[in-house]
Amino acid sequence: MSLVATAPSSDGPIIAEVDMGADSSAPVVRATVVQASTVFYDTPATLDKAERLLAEAAGYGAQLVVFPEAFIGGYPRGSNFGAAIGNRTPKGREEFRKYHAAAIDVPGPEVDRLAAMAGKYKVLLVMGVIERDGYTLYCSVLFFDAQGHYLGKHRKMMPTSVERIVWGFGDGSTIPVFDTPVGKIGAAICWENRMPLLRTAMYGKGIEIYCAPTADSRPTWPASMTHIALEGGCFVLSADQFCRRKDYPPAPEYVFAGTEEELDPDSVVCAGGSLIISPMGTVLAGPNYEGEALISADLDLGEIARAKFDFDVVGHYARPEVLSLTVRDHPTTAVTYTASSAAAKTESSQKK
């Protein structure tokens, strides 16, 4: 196995490529994780940037491209939206209004454009977005095939800490694993990757390429990704943003609570750390902490069977007569209308 990386250049991202030395009996997939920042509060500009990066990845032969958590819509790092227990500020409410405006409807015109990009560059695209459903926002991942079709979404089930102020909670209806020409693909976002039962639900669906868009650039993150690759016998592709203070609006419009005074425009506020790991726990590419980058590896899908020879977490290594998992995979809604109540509601509205 060899690692070849180009030197950093002001003309474009770093490209790290790995040759796994695969034989011709198993498919090999070129996968790329994108490490780049959102254009905050500017969704059209972020979509333009996504297309530039996607075109560049496709130019290097990528068949599968994974973008970071909340790439479209933005990860509101450092913000508390003016919220404290028992109090919200007018400035925080306005900040939420702007964040809500930058989110996207699913389906919607931005989803159509992402689908068109995937079809234009003939890549399977996994994109982190902020999804707008009425006035509730969700941190979601959207999936598109290489023919330009929208496949579906995963909503983050458990936002972390202050994220719960601005993001809703996903349910069991959006834990998909898609059977695609390059393998069975699904995603978990950031710290929900630490949820053993969620991981097990995805293993139960046969996931082979496990995407992990994140906002966690700490040095402990790669250990979690390695564990998941070993546990699931799957490839793990983790994409994080690389952001400097200047990638967010300046103060006082946008304030990094508690740290703003310590930051200058070039201060790194998210250091990346994107990486790709094999089912045997080998780091194939990354982690990269140097800047915006395209990080690529050739995935020998034969490694999945080799890894599961001695550990198949929901197969021959499981003990379902002792330990088992039940997943409630139906949508949950706040209001459900029965046929009779729906008719009554319609009748009432007609009388007004």
Describe the protein in words:
InterPro entries: C-N_Hydrolase, C-N_Hydrolase_sf, Nitrilase/CN_hydratase_CS, Nitrilases_CHs. GO terms for molecular function: 3-cyanoalanine hydratase activity; cyanoalanine nitrilase activity; nitrile hydratase activity. Residues 29-301 form the CN hydrolase domain. It is a single chain. The chain is built from 7 helices and 19 strands. It is an alpha/beta fold. Strands 1, 2, 3, 4, 7, 8, 9, 10 and 19 form a 9-stranded mixed beta sheet that branches. Strands 11-12-13-14-17-18 form a 6-stranded mixed beta sheet, covered by helices on one side. Strands 5-6 form a two-stranded antiparallel ribbon. Helix 1 runs parallel beside helix 3 (109-121). The longest helix has 17 residues, at 43-59. It starts with a strand and ends with a helix. Mean pLDDT is 90; it is low at 1-18.
As an assembly, this protein is: single chain
Radius of gyration: 21 Å
Q: What's the mean pLDDT score?
A: 90
Low-confidence stretches: 1-18
Report the β-strand fraction as a percent range: 25-35%
Q: Helix and strand string, N-terminal first?
A: EEEHEEEHEHEEEEEHEHEEEEEEHH
- Biggest β-sheet: count, sense, barrel? 9 strands, mixed
Please state the overall shape, judged from the principal axes of the Cα atoms. Answer: globular
Structural class: alpha/beta
- Proportion of helical residues: 10-25%
Q: Helix count, per DSSP?
A: 7
Number of E-state strands: 19
Question: Ends: how far apart?
Answer: 73 Å
Concise account of the structure shown:
Belongs to the carbon-nitrogen hydrolase superfamily. Nitrilase family. Its EC number is 3.5.5.4, 4.2.1.65. It is built from seven helices and 19 strands.
